[in-house]
Design brief:
three-stranded antiparallel beta sheet, 32 strands
């Protein structure tokens, strides 16, 4: 026991002597500015006061007396902590901080020891790959977070690492700090300009070569060995995931069917997987700096940040005045208050692009020309017969309208992909005058209809008054020719003397619409379908029995209207006998809205600026006056007028006074309507449609408007029924018919419906009172 106590006393005495030598060493190295108490406190903070660390540090200082001024890269970690504490205490000038043995930096902790000496974590992790806790990919670990180690790519995306740029205001990775400590991103920090060793111009240094600094124009990208052709060339696609380096020639020469767009275009297999063309190559999903949505980002170096395809197109095609120099250019940056900045004001002179033909500042599409110039050239090539440089006099209005279209990119897309564009080129190459009769001889498909409407909208052809009827006659000719002979002998007379006769009568009164023509086509198709059904059952019209007709009506309940018109015609011509068409129970409107729903939707249409303007106009007209959508789309701008008493809109024959809010909406719709057509306003000074369609010489289709209203949770049928209830409850039926263009019988039927419903309500109330 005495021997053990003596050993402990001796160990404690050696520890006290080691601590005393450490304090003396510090006092000698630092000088009179350091006291013994302060030296002991520094040793304690550096964790060098414990027995193990004090002996380790004392032994190292005994072997290296100048360790505080010239530390060895193989020193213990306790010496590194001591040097940090001395610097933190204000004695940094008297000591020398240990630098990383690889990178030489002194601002990081050197916790790891390597054969070369102590290294920072960055240098040690450069050659080691570990799984990132965020992206789950093997990479170089740059930092540690709560979820674990993160790689360098995720570290640069980390909000804790990114800062607000002092120039553009974007939250990005800091690349430079000014003298006052303001962080600047890579697109905003001032890059020094030096004299290029090749051209001699003062420009930014793109690379440092043996000749000296060179600018971007003079820099030649060094070639590497292509993995396909085996030649040393400029590399277009870098090697990744087993895919070799690919030069420009091999990449452009490799053509295949793109797995995304299906076109045969140059491209390559993305990372050894499916084939992608250059336009469909997958891009990284990033947060768009404009719309704030996570989408595939365009590869740009704009200071504003990553942009999705839509926001990039919007900026590049719509130049605005720069908030700093007031020059109209593409806005590639953003000030702290949200103003746009052009490329030169952001320090990027190479982003100042303009069309080399017309000088438009942006929207470059091909060969340095903007989309407007490219569209004009391609339209002239399309309409010039046999490759001539001039367009025929008849088609010159079409060329002018397409070349001056508000959306030239739509024109380019139409020229590239539309079959109607090829039909237009074929008509131009025939050197004959284009007439309605010439177009009537072509197949009556959507391409022919589109070409006809384009020619009418541009003033090349006059608008036919009975176009809907003529289109039905052309369709009937083709439809009847495709039928079997025995069916055509019956369908042709039915269509000519029943359907077309009624259609001509309505067309003469100006009441034959596209919806009515669609119903007539359905009736003719239903008659042909009924004859085909009879052929399959080995029956004919002469032997048609009542049970056969009942079976058809049971199995085809939605075809009752069409087959009814056909059966009545056959009975009148004595083609059938002994059968009776069962009467269909007529049902009145059954879908309504509550008063709260109706007025809430009306308030949305009148006050909600987030809704599209045309949706607000249609929704308000339906809910205020009970107008059907087919009547609204047929309204023209000349039916709206204002005077001292207010704003009026004529629905049928008499003008109707509008509420002020609805009048302002209609005025704005007339002033700046939403165009869905690539063509502009139609030629001439005639009235325009309130809801212009495609082209603008036609109105929007009723089906499209119904779909648009449903997308914004504004149903039409139930709202119109509710509005009709309120209208006929306040106005006499004859007034409703005169003001809103509703048929007299329809207005009286609505009035009877409201009266019957009110009478039933009063009767129910009286019975309830009598029971009480």
């Amino acid at each position: 026991m005495r021997r053990q106590n003596a050993h402990q006393r001796r160990r404690q005495q050696e520890l006290d002597q080691a601590r005393a030598r450490l304090i003396a060493h510090l006092l000698e190295a630092i000088g009179p500015d350091l006291t013994a108490e302060a030296a002991q406190r520094i040793l304690e903070q550096a964790k060098a006061w414990s027995a193990l660390r004090a002996r380790e540090l004392n032994d190292h200082l005994a072997e290296n007396p100048d360790a505080l001024t010239a530390p060895s890269p193989h020193c213990p970690l306790v010496l590194v902590r001591l040097l940090r504490q001395l610097e933190a205490a204000g004695h940094g000038e008297a000591v020398t901080q240990l630098a990383c043995a690889i990178c030489g930096r002194t601002n990081s902790t050197l916790r790891r020891s390597t054969p070369a000496g102590r290294c920072c974590n960055w240098c040690l992790d450069r050659d080691s790959l570990r799984q990132c806790a965020r992206c789950k990919q093997d990479g170089h670990i740059a930092a540690h977070r709560e979820e674990g180690p993160i790689c360098r790519v995720c570290y640069r995306k980390d909000p804790l690492f990114q800062q607000d740029c002092g120039k553009c205001g974007q939250h990005r990775v800091p690349a430079f700090r000014s003298e006052d400590g303001t962080a600047l991103c890579s697109g905003c920090y001032p890059r020094p300009e030096r004299e290029c060793a090749r051209c001699g111009d003062q420009a930014r240094v793109w690379a440092n070569t043996e000749e000296g600094p060179v600018c971007r124009r003079c820099y030649d990208v060094p070639g590497r060995l292509c993995g396909l052709c085996g030649r040393v060339r400029r590399i277009h696609v870098r090697a990744a995931n087993g895919q070799p380096d690919i030069c420009d020639a091999c990449y452009r020469g490799h053509t295949g069917e793109c797995s995304v767009c299906g076109r045969l275009r140059p491209g390559f297999r993305h990372r050894g997987g499916a084939f992608h063309c250059g336009s469909c190559q997958p891009r990284r999903v990033r947060l768009c700096a404009d719309c704030g949505k996570s989408r595939q980002a365009k590869s740009t170096n704009w200071p504003v940040g990553p942009l999705c395809t839509g926001c990039y197109s919007r900026r590049s095609r719509n130049p605005i005045p720069c908030s700093r120099c007031r020059t109209t250019r593409i806005s590639v940056g953003r000030t702290l208050n949200g103003g746009g900045l052009c490329g030169p004001c952001c320090g990027l002179d190479d982003l100042d692009v303009a069309c080399r033909r017309c000088g438009f500042p942006g929207d470059i599409y091909a060969d340095g020309n903007c989309t407007r110039c490219v569209a004009g050239d391609r339209v002239r090539d399309l309409l010039s017969p046999d490759g001539e440089s001039t367009v025929s006099a008849q088609l010159q209005p079409v060329a002018d309208a397409l070349a001056s279209a508000a959306r030239p990119l739509s024109v380019i897309h139409w020229l590239q992909h539309s079959t109607s564009a090829r039909l237009m080129a074929m008509l131009a190459a025939e050197h004959t005058e284009i007439t309605h009769e010439l177009l009537d001889g072509l197949p009556q498909d959507r391409n022919t209809r589109h070409v006809r409407e384009t020619l009418v909208a541009t003033g090349v052809l006059p608008r036919r008054q009975q176009e809907t009827l003529i289109r039905l006659e052309l369709w009937l000719h083709d439809f009847a020719d495709a039928l079997p002979v025995h069916q055509a002998r019956i369908i042709r007379p039915f269509a000519e003397w029943q359907v077309l006769r009624d259609a001509r009568r309505r067309s003469a009164r100006g009441r034959y619409t596209a919806g009515a023509a669609t119903g007539d086509r359905t009736d003719i198709r239903t008659a042909a379908m009924f004859l085909t059904w009879l052929d399959a059952r080995q029956l004919d019209l002469g032997t048609l029995a009542q049970e056969d007709l009942d079976l058809w009506l049971t199995t085809h309940p939605t075809r009752r209207r069409g087959v009814g018109a056909f059966i009545r015609w056959t009975l009148a011509r004595r083609l059938t006998s002994g059968i009776v068409l069962p009467k269909e129970a007529k049902t009145f409107a059954s879908r309504f809205q509550t008063d709260e729903e109706h007025y809430e939707q009306l308030r949305r249409c009148l006050n909600d600026d987030s809704l599209p303007l045309e949706v607000r106009v249609v929704g308000a007209l339906v809910r205020l006056y009970g107008l059907p959508v087919t009547r609204i789309v047929a309204l023209t701008t000349d039916r709206f007028h204002t005077d001292k008493t207010g704003a009026y809109l004529t629905f049928d024959r008499n003008p109707v006074l509008l509420p002020p809010k609805l009048a302002r909406l209609i005025e704005e719709q007339i002033r700046r309507p939403e165009h869905v057509s690539m063509l502009g306003e139609p030629a001439g000074d005639g009235p325009r449609f309130l809801l212009p369609g495609r082209p603008t010489s036609r109105p929007r289709s009723a089906g499209w408007v119904h779909t648009r209203m449903k997308q914004h949770d504004l149903p039409n049928i139930s709202a119109r029924n509710t509005a009709m209830i309120e209208v006929v409850a306040e106005l006499p039926p004859i007034v409703v018919s005169d003001l809103f263009g509703v048929g007299a019988s329809t207005a009286h039927r609505w009035a009877r419906f409201v009266q019957d419903d009110w009478a039933d309500y009063l009767a129910a109330c009286e019975s309830t009172d009598s029971k009480e």
